[in-house]
């Protein structure tokens, strides 16, 4: 094993200082709206990569390029990038109109006193289908504002319910950036991670729903919200959701979703056939920054590992967390700290992935549980920080509609992220992880064996 070298972790420190420092300056010092998201994160990562390249004078620059090439060319990184692109094409193809249809359908058939509970459930379903919490919040928050204005429900409660539901799907969806990053980074199948995560997320969601219902039934209501809806465009989302749950290969699932979505939007006249390819390209282009972050982080981490940074970090973690359960908590706190610093749960997972991979081996934690911990804890922190995109987009949507609400008014009603944290801790400390860590070569053999068995079953 390489000797530990704390100085090799400097690129991570440079990134965090620059990104967090500029974010605080832009957001609170200069008053720039969504200041954290006005920082070109790719540029900051390039600076961190430059710092990594300037370290370790014993390696020539050509040798460092070889090290970076091995990191970028890893199978998990290549697969992650391809899934990002396919998911982007899918979103560009099907659009997002069906999300509002689901909400208005449920609001039209369920009694008004359950409107806030409907907002939460709809947000859970929409984010699970779409794979984006920000997109869900963008679409459903205006409906939440209408519900609050028409019925008399508290606006912070309505908005927080949408945000909680949005984080439920962000944590579980098969086409969510966080799921893709966590599963590919840890080398586990999405269906296995989904099953692991669902056991944690469902109790938190059910408790949240009960609390929302208790608060709702104690509120005097005065009206309802109704609008037109069309559910035909929901079919591609259902194909992706069901296909992912039953374990169909993610590329096949996304291709089926893209094909069905293309047929539906063209047949309905929602998109002209000549514009469809352009929409696909726009969707794929929307994944550019996420893809570049994956590439740059893999290059930086390859150099940090080569220079002994991960060995030093793991040694420090082992001194702090000595047990298997403590190691799992350490993974959660690691990705949580990254999320607090970057205000981006996908970036936090990509950064934490290589360290968590080695922690999983050290503490004998299964790949699926490691991926689940990374995704869950990142969503917990991302769902409550007042400067996260989710919170800022929700507040902005309210403001555009003429209603004022602050992050600190919304935060007390963010029941789901808080209960998700409690549920996660229960599963770490009280629910045993039956499967231990499987080395890369053994995991590859297991995957090949499962694939051959499934193929044989299909032939029969």
Automatic annotation (TrEMBL):
Residues 42-215, 247-429 form the Na+/H+ antiporter NhaC-like C-terminal domain. The chain crosses the membrane at residues 7-29, 35-55, 76-95, 101-128, 140-163, 200-222, 234-267, 287-314, 413-431. InterPro entries: Na/H_Antiport_NhaC-like_C, NhaC_Na-H+_Antiporter. It is a multi-pass membrane protein. The keyword Transmembrane helix applies. GO terms for molecular function: antiporter activity. Keywords: Antiport, Cell membrane, Membrane, Transmembrane, Transmembrane helix, Transport. GO terms for cellular component: plasma membrane. Its main location: membrane. Belongs to the NhaC Na(+)/H(+) (TC 2.A.35) antiporter family. This is Sodium:proton antiporter.
């Amino acid at each position: 094993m390489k000797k530990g070298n704390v100085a090799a972790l400097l690129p991570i420190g440079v990134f965090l200082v620059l990104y967090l420092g500029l974010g605080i300056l832009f957001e609170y010092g200069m008053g720039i709206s969504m200041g954290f998201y006005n920082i070109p994160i790719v540029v900051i990562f390039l600076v961190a990569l430059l710092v990594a390249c300037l370290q370790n004078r014993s390696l020539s620059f050509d040798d460092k390029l070889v090290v970076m090439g091995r990191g970028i060319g890893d199978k998990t990184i290549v697969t992650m990038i391809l899934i990002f692109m396919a998911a982007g094409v899918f979103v560009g193809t099907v659009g997002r109109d069906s999300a509002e249809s689901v909400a208005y359908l449920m609001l039209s058939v369920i009694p008004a006193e359950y409107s806030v509970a409907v907002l939460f459930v709809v947000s859970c379903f929409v984010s699970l289908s779409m794979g984006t919490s920000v997109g869900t919040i963008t679409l459903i928050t205006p409906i939440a504002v209408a519900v609050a204005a028409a019925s008399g429900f508290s606006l912070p409660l309505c908005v927080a319910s949408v945000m909680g539901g949005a984080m439920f799907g962000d944590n579980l969806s098969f086409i969510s950036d966080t799921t893709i990053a966590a599963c590919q980074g840890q080398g586990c199948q999405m269906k296995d991670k989904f099953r692991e995560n669902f056991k944690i997320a469902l109790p938190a969601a059910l408790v949240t729903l009960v609390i929302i219902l208790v608060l709702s039934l104690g509120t005097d209501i005065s009206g309802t919200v109704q609008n037109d809806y069309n559910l035909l465009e929901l079919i591609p989302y259902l194909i992706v959701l069901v296909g992912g749950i039953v374990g169909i290969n993610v590329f096949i699932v996304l291709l089926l979703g893209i094909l069905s979505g293309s047929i539906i939007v063209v047949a309905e006249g929602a998109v002209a056939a000549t514009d469809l390819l352009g929409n696909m390209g726009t969707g794929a282009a929307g994944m550019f920054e996420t893809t570049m972050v994956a590439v740059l982080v893999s290059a930086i981490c390859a150099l940090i590992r080569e220079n002994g940074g991960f060995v030093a970090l793991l040694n420090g973690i082992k001194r702090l967390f000595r047990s298997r359960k403590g190691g799992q908590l350490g993974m959660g706190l690691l990705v949580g700290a990254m999320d607090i610093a970057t205000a981006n749960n996908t970036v936090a997972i990509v950064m934490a992935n290589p360290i968590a991979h080695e922690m999983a081996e050290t503490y004998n934690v299964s790949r699926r549980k490691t991926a689940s911990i990374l995704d869950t804890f990142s969503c917990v922190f991302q769902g409550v920080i007042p400067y996260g995109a989710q919170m800022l987009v929700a507040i902005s949507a309210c403001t555009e509609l003429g209603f004022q609400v602050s992050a600190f008014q919304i935060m007390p009603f963010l029941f789901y992220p808080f209960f998700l944290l409690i549920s996660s801790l229960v599963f770490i400390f009280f629910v045993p992880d039956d499967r231990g860590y499987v080395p890369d070569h053994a995991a590859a053999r297991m995957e090949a064996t499962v694939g051959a068995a499934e193929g044989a079953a299909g032939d029969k």
